Amino acid sequence: ANVSTDVTFAQEFISRDGHVLLVKIVEDGNESPLIMTHTLTSFFELMDHQIVSWENLSSAFIKKIASLVNAKVCDASIQQVSLALLESMVQSGRALYLLVKQEVTLERLLAHLQVANQQIQTKAMALLMALLQTAGDADRQVSGVVTLCCWSQNIIHSSGAVGDEMAHYLYVLQSVTLNHLEPRMRTPLDCYSQDQREVLHTLRQAAFETESENSLSNERRRSLCAKEFRKLGFSNNSNPGQDLVRAPPGLLALDTMEYFSSRYPDAYSRFVLENSSREDKHECPFARSSIQLTLVLCEILRIGDPPSETGADYHPIFFSQDRLVEELFCVCIQLLNKTWKEMRATQEDFDKVMQVVREQITRTLSSKPTSLELFKNKVNALNYGEILKLRQTERLHQEETLERLKPELMDLIRQQRLNRLCQGTLFRKISSRRRQDKLWYCRLSPNHKVLHYGDVEEDTESPAIESLQEKIPVADIKALLTGKDCPHMKENKGKQTKVRSSLANHTVLPMPSQFCLWTDGLSVLLGRDMGSESMRSELEILLSMEIKLRLLDLENVQIPDLAPPVPLPPSNYHFCYDFNATEQ
Q1: What CA–CA distance (Å, rounded) separates 166 from 171?
Q2: Structural contact between residues 522 and 477, judged by C-beta atoms closer than 8 angstroms
Q3: What digits encode the pLDDT tens for the residues 32-80?
Q4: Secondary-structure breakdown of the chain: helix, strand, coil percentages, each rounded to the nearest 5
Q5: Among 204-208, 308-312, 448-452, which range has the highest average pLDDT?
Q6: Which residues, other chains included, contact 238 with Cβ-Cβ below 8 Å and sequence gap of 6+?
Q7: Fold for domain 415-535?
Q8: How far apart are CA 53 and CA 547, in angstroms?
Q9: 244 Cβ neighbours under 8 A, 6+ residues apart
Q10: How far is it, in rounded angstroms, from Cα 498 to Cα 428?
Q11: How far apart are CA 373 and CA 365, in angstroms?
């Protein structure tokens, strides 16, 4: 079994039909558990090289493997490898998925989740996730997802820690199940749908006790409905369905509002009536808040995003609730109303309130509450005052982190400035008549002790340091004067930025960036702090980049040591689109 992992051995073994012999041993089933385990393991490793297609397996072999999984009494090692084999079969194609689904019952797989052996638990969950992800949408609705979630809750609350592989499968189960809501989330409300209009009117009638509408005239009824829809928090009170046209959250927002009003009618009426009695600018609009809150929950729970191959961030609370999104909504809409009052918010503060509520939900879910009641207690304890304290603490920690990073990055900038001075710069002289007709070049020696300069010709790019005859020891430089502090500058007559040190000539730098490089570089040579705008800008960029790189490291993102290769230029540049051309 061990040598089956070697691709050279696998190619030679398969070329001699060795895998056919392994299949026959399994189908006969006459060997001891130890021999059977090694046989199955060898076959699994051989198939992993993808030399032989899974589609070539006989139905008799697949049924034999399924019988080993279904057996109530069987060696644990045999069942573990058999589960892994069935998982690979399911992932290989639709035909094998249907055959495995027919042979292996959900009850037996759920039974494997109850055993104490964590390896069998993990392999059983892996097979369940493969079946669930390969199934079509119609199959998923009846695939026992609710039962599976209940058994998964037992795994989460077991005494042993949840392993990384099991955590990934729990995350996949959560993601696939929540994505059942995606069609509702992406479907806008149909203003011509009688059923959807009735749901809107049910929301209105549940919130307000009104007199019989049958006795009212059409005009009076429309006026009353518009007034009550406005109190309910709809922006378009004459046609409230327009508020739900945006998708996401689409019809899912209507579903959550209907669930809240029917499941918790007292809390629903209290929310609406309480805000109806406030001043217009201080009332918390239920409908608008519900639509935005539903969107926030969809984003936090990543509804609509396909499961990641490496994701393992699951919420234990998900496995304790049949309708997690709706129940979370019922808790969070009341939290939103509470936070609105704590912030003394007005209609203009709506986005700020939603940001705070998003933070309250995200922080609470990150603590991994195991039940809805625990989530409710934690999220309500995390009031607006606590959020402000946490933000202040995090801001201080961030500032401390930046301060720790600054010395290293400042050294990097200082070194860059000195390197730039060593490369040198071409200057123009200013004559007594303010003419700039001569050129000279200045550069710092490699040991950073002497400035070399001298006159050069117009077409000179980078003269050798030996050709620059004039020298100034850095130790002789007493001060660096810029701007109006320069002796040769006259009040209100400076048209260009000029630099003067103990150099004998008046100099003009070719551009502002060169001015910053030289003033910073000379300041470093003099042992003083750099003060240019360029330095501050570069420091901010480097700090931001360093923080991002460290965050990538926390996410286990491998950063290559070498820069990615620059691709070759295209063979031609004839790829502009002609908008006038008629498409065929």
Answers
A1: 9
A2: yes
A3: 989 999 999 999 999 999 898 988 888 999 999 999 999 888 888 999 9
A4: 60, 5, 35
A5: 448-452
A6: 222, 226, 229
A7: PH-domain like (2.30.29)
A8: 47
A9: 188, 189, 250, 251, 253, 254, 291
A10: 11
A11: 13
Distance CA 189, CA 199 (A): 11
Query: Is residue 309 very low, low, confident or very high in pLDDT (cuts 50, 70, 90)?
Result: confident
Residues forming beta bridges with residue 440, ordered by sequence position? 427, 455
> With 80 as the cut, is the pLDDT of residue 230 above it?
yes
Classify burial at 522, counting beta carbons within 10 Å of its beta carbon; exposed 0-12, middle 13-18, buried 19 or more: buried
How far is the C-alpha of 486 from the C-alpha of 484, rounded, in Å?
Answer: 5
Q: Report how far residue 30's alpha carbon sits from residue 7's, in angstroms, rounded to the nearest whole number.
A: 29
Q: Given this model, what pLDDT does residue 214 score?
A: 59
Q: Is 566 exposed, middle or buried (0-12, 13-18, 19+ CB in 10 A)?
A: exposed
Start-end ranges of CATH 2.30.29.30 in the chain? 415-535
Give the pTM.
0.73
Task: Give me the mean pLDDT over the 543-555 stretch.
Answer: 84
Look at residue 501 in the predicted model and tell me its pLDDT. 44
Count helices and strands in the chain by DSSP H and E runs: 23, 7
Q: How far apart are the C-alpha atoms of 85 and 565, rounded to whole Å?
A: 40
Q: Which residue's structure tokens are 């599976």? A: 148
pLDDT of residue 196: 92
Q: Look up residue 463 and give its two tokens.
A: 């003269």
Average pLDDT, the chain: 86
Encode pLDDT of 138-165 as tens digits. Answer: 555 444 555 566 566 667 666 567 888 8
DSSP label at 232? T
CB proximity list for 12: less than 8 A, separation 6 or greater: none
Q: In terms of Cα–Cα distance, which of 90, 48, 40, 30 is closest to 65?
A: 40
Range(s) within the chain of domains with CATH label 1.25.10.10: 2-143
2-143 in CATH: which number?
1.25.10.10
Six token digits for residue 165: 């592989």
Count Cβ atoms below 10 Å from residue 29 Cβ, excluding itself: 10
Q: What per-residue confidence (pLDDT) applies to 583?
A: 47
d(CA 291, CA 542): 40
Please determine, for residue 486, whether its predicted confidence score (pLDDT) is greater than 80. Answer: no
Q: Which helix (H) or strand (E) holds 444?
A: strand 439-444
pLDDT at position 480 over 60: yes
Q: Answer yes or no: are the C-beta atoms of 40 and 78 closer than 8 Å.
A: yes
DSSP strand pairing (439-444 vs 470-473): unpaired
